[in-house]
């Protein structure tokens, strides 16, 4: 994964290589750091016989038309947990009840012709009521799917988080 930057963002001099690199003109060290995101694995109930999760059909690129979990990029200085709560309000129109942290996953996101590294943080969550008002600018529809038989998701980190969440919930129901 690379960035388009072939010039130093500080002095504008050409860079010898893609980041990570140091500008030979001004000494600026340039890195490509993963952008943090926060996502929700909204479950239909912690003790349901077949645990289902909420998925949204993406309305915009990248990956328009594919299923995803609610979530998005963290704002500067925003903790992923706070971003997860904010994304729940923005994308579902409700204040979700946040549960355990599932994990962090390195992935990628196509943005403005660049492939950006992302650090996706996933949390279990539940709805306080059975009312969802999706943002039509971001999602075309929503549906509930089996956690153990999930459809392919828009981003590979979502697939991995769903597998880990299913394993965690299976272990917890078995009392381990």
Q: How would you describe what is shown here?
A:
The protein contains two helices and nine strands. It has 176 residues and is an alpha+beta fold. The chain has two domains: 1-32, no CATH class; 34-173, Nucleoside Triphosphate Pyrophosphohydrolase, CATH 3.90.79. InterPro entries: NUDIX_hydrolase-like_dom_sf, NUDIX_hydrolase_CS, NUDIX_hydrolase_dom. Residues 33-168 form the Nudix hydrolase domain. It holds the Pfam family NUDIX. This is Nudix hydrolase domain-containing protein.
Concise synopsis of the structure shown:
With 176 residues, the chain is of the alpha+beta class.
Largest sheet: 4 strands, mixed
CATH architecture of the largest domain: Alpha-Beta Complex
Percent helix among the residues?
10-25%
> What would you give as the CATH superfamily of the largest domain?
Nucleoside Triphosphate Pyrophosphohydrolase
Q: Alpha-carbon distance between the termini?
A: 39 Å
Mean pLDDT: 91
Strand order of the largest sheet: 6-3-8-7
Element pattern in H and E: EEEEEEHEEEH
Number of strands: 9
Question: Characteristics of this structure?
Answer:
176 residues; alpha+beta; Nucleoside Triphosphate Pyrophosphohydrolase; four-stranded mixed β-sheet; three-stranded antiparallel β-sheet; 2 helices; 35% strand; elongated; Nudix hydrolase domain-containing protein; hydrolase
